[in-house]
Design brief:
Order of helices and strands: EHEHEHEHEHEEEHEHHHHHHH
Number of helices: 13
Structural class: alpha/beta
Largest sheet: 6 strands, parallel
Strand content: 5-15%
Distance between the termini: 27 Å
Radius of gyration: 21 Å
Number of strands: 9
Length: 294
């Protein structure tokens, strides 16, 4: 008999995970959502065996428990329910920032319960179960966070969660738990702030409405993530603020360098070289090249 995965939070990530596991694996899935209508939608779609508006029955049924709420919410909830966990159960999460949740887990996890964090590098500026879909993870990164020095870590479970991501069509990566947030600050959290800043500069004053009417695909694409849920991104960015501040410092230095390129009396040749370098870097993105780690 296959294992049961309990997903706490059936929003974009949690709902998509439920749909993907149901479609592409033999795991049984149960879910928790605060709103009854979300539970009913997941049941009607046939992607969960049971759906609850209370946590306890999900914990009773689950072999693998996935925390799929915003990071600080996950951390607070884990502290509340840790005493209900049983030896042999597996805890994971799909948060974009890990420090606060990992700290809460290590402070409260009962002996015999396993914790291996994962991070599916997939998402959208839109949220909620209604926009979740089974192919959200195809071709996207599925990061396994390693912490072999912790008694709660299991290499066997890490491999099982890697196999789960691979079954969903993801590109597998492994990084250290304590390096993860620094990396994500540069490829997710700081870029989100930059998109928000550009949006505010372009549209936040008395000429903003006119500028927005004049904008086209470039502005839309470069600011897409600024349309994300502010309450969730507050938890992600503020929870990783030390690394984001380092990222902003690097951006300030890069801006100074680009300013010298614009001031150079070379007909823009150095600027073109810089743009070519940046284009080449971007064109190596795995989800553009189709590179998958098998």
């Amino acid at each position: 008999m296959g294992k049961t995965v309990g997903i706490i939070g059936l929003g974009l990530l949690g709902g998509s995970l439920a749909k993907a596991l149901s479609a592409y694996t033999d795991y049984s899935v149960v879910g928790y959502a605060r709103r009854r209508e979300v539970c009913e939608a997941a049941l009607q779609d046939g992607v969960v065996k049971h759906a609850y508006t209370e946590i306890e029955p999900l914990l009773e049924e689950s072999d693998i428990i996935v925390f799929s709420l915003p990071p600080d919410t996950n951390a607070a909830l884990f502290k509340e329910i840790a005493h209900l966990l049983k030896p042999g159960q597996i805890i994971t999460d799909v948060s974009s920032a890990k420090e606060n949740f990992a700290k809460a887990v290590y402070e409260s996890i009962p002996e015999g319960v396993v914790f291996v964090s994962v991070h599916p590098m997939a998402g959208s500026e839109k949220g909620g179960y209604e926009v979740s879909h089974k192919n959200l993870f195809k071709g996207m990164g599925w990061i396994i966070l390693e912490d072999p020095s912790s008694p709660a870590y299991s290499a066997t479970v890490a491999q099982e969660l890697e196999d789960m991501g691979r079954a969903l069509g993801s590109r597998i990566e492994r990084v250290g738990l304590y390096e993860h947030d620094e990396y994500l600050a540069m490829v997710s959290h700081t870029p989100h702030l930059m998109a928000s800043m550009i949006t505010n500069i372009a549209g936040g004053d008395e000429l903003g409405e006119l500028r927005m009417r004049l904008s086209a695909g470039g502005f839309r694409d470069s600011t897409r993530v600024a349309g994300g849920l502010p309450s969730m991104w507050r938890e992600i960015i503020y929870g990783n603020r030390n690394n984001v501040l380092k990222g902003l410092s690097q951006i300030e230095k890069e801006m100074e360098y680009v300013r010298t390129l614009l001031l150079a009396d070379d007909n823009g040749e150095a600027l073109e070289e810089y743009l070519e370098k940046c284009r080449d870097i971007r064109n190596k993105l795995p989800y553009l090249t189709g590179q998958l780690r098998k």
